[in-house]
Amino acid sequence: MTVDRQSVRASRTVPNSLPASIPFAAMPQHPGSLLSVADLTLDQITHILARASALESEDPLARAHRLAKRRIALLFYESSTRTRTSFELAAKSLGADTTLVSSLSSSIEKGESLKDTGLTLRALGAQAIILRHPSSGAPWLLSQVTGLPILNAGDGLHEHPSQALLDLRTILACLRPGVASITADTLTGVTVTITGDILHSRVARSNMLLLPRLGARVQLCGPPALLPAIAAEIGPGIIIERDFDRALASSQIVMMLRIQAERLAGLQLDLDEYRRDFQLSAQRLAAYAPTAPVLHPGPVIRGLELTAEVADGAQSRILDQVRNGVAIRMALVERALDSSGVTQ
Ligand code: CP
C-alpha cells in the first residue's frame, strides 16, 4: 500500500453512512464463537480478561498441555501481521496444532467458496476456525455452515472483536490497573478519542460497541469523508468532535487509526490537509494531551496519522497492544475449544 501520494481521487461519491450492523444476533452459534464483541456479557468479558492474565503468567510447559492435539485452522482472506501471528502463537502456546489457509496459496484462488472451504477444513479435523474476510458477515456464514466455534479476526468494515478486547486490556492496564471485574462503571469518566478513518474501521466499530457499555465516552474525530455524522448513531455514549486539538484536550485515551488506502476508492482526500488537521505530532500531544496513552491497532503509517516520534514516544502503548493480543487470543482460543466440551 502506498500512502505517500498527495491525494487519493476517483469517481465514487463520498459515502454518508457506515455499513449497517449485521442483523445476525439471533442466529444460533457455537458458544465458543466470538463473532461480535456485542455478543459478550460483561461477566464473560471479565472471565476472558482473567483467563488472559492467568494463561499469560502460567508456566509455558503446563500451558502447552491445555489444548494438546486440538486442531485450529486460521483462514485468512486478507493480509495480517498482528492478528494472524498472535492467534497462531496463542494457539501454539496452548499446545494446539494450527494450520494457515490463506486466499493466495489455497484452492480459494481457484474459486472455492467460503462454505466449501469451511466444510473442507472441518472434514480435515479443524475444531475451530479463525477467520479474517473482506466481507462483513462472513464469520456468521461460516458459523452456520460448519457449526464450529468461529473466531472473527476481522470481517470487512464490520467488526474486529478480539482487537477491541486487547484494546480494553491495554486501557485497563493504563487507567484501572488491578481491576478485577468489568461493570457498567469500570470506565466511567474516561473519554477515548478515536481519530482517523472511522468509516472503514472495524476496530473503531468494535470499540464503539464495547467501551460505552463500560461507561466510557467514545469521541470520534476526523474529516467528514472518513467520519460521516451518522457514526454517532451506532450506539449511546458516542460523540463527534471535528477539532482534533479540542478532542485531544478532553481525552484520557488517544486511539489513532490508519487511513485504509486499500478501501479508499472514490474518496477525495488531500493528505497534506489531513496531516495538518489530524496528524498526531509530538507538539500536538504535548500541548493537548500530555499524559494520555496513545493506542493504534496497527499497521502504523509513520508520517501520516502520527509521527514516528509519537509512535516511539513515551506515551505510545502500541507494542503493549500487540503483546496483549497474544494473551487475549489465548483466552479466546481456550474458550473456543473448552466450550465445545472437548477440553477440561
Ligand atoms: N490490528 C490488526 O488487525 O492488525 P493486522 O492487520 O496486522 O492483523
Mean pLDDT: 91
CATH topology of the largest domain: Rossmann fold
Let me know the CATH homologous superfamily of the largest domain.
Aspartate/ornithine carbamoyltransferase
CATH architecture of the largest domain: 3-Layer(aba) Sandwich
Radius of gyration: 20 Å
* β-strand number: 11
Give structural notes:
The chain has two domains: 37-159 and 323-342, 3-Layer(aba) Sandwich (Rossmann fold), CATH 3.40.50; 161-321, Rossmann fold (3-Layer(aba) Sandwich). Strand 4, helix 5 (138-146) and strand 5 (150-155) form a beta-alpha-beta unit. The longest helix is centred in the C-terminal third of the chain and has 21 residues, at 318-338. It contains twelve helices and eleven strands. Helix 1 crosses helix 12, helix 3 crosses helix 12 (318-338) and helix 6 (161-175) crosses helix 7 (202-210). It is of the alpha/beta class. It has helices at residues 42-57, 60-63, 82-93, 114-123, 138-146, 161-175, 202-210, 244-249, 271-278, 282-288, 308-311, 318-338; strands at 7-8, 71-76, 97-102, 128-133, 150-155, 191-195, 217-221, 238-240, 253-256, 269-270, 294-295. It has a five-stranded parallel β-sheet with strand order 8-7-6-9-11. Strands 3-2-4-5 form a four-stranded parallel β-sheet, sandwiched between helices. Strands 1-10 form a two-stranded antiparallel ribbon. Residues 1-16 and 340-344 have low confidence and may be disordered. The chain is 35% helix and 14% strand. The site of phosphoric acid mono(formamide)ester (CP) has 10 residues, from helix 3. The site of phosphoric acid mono(formamide)ester has 10 residues, from helix 3.
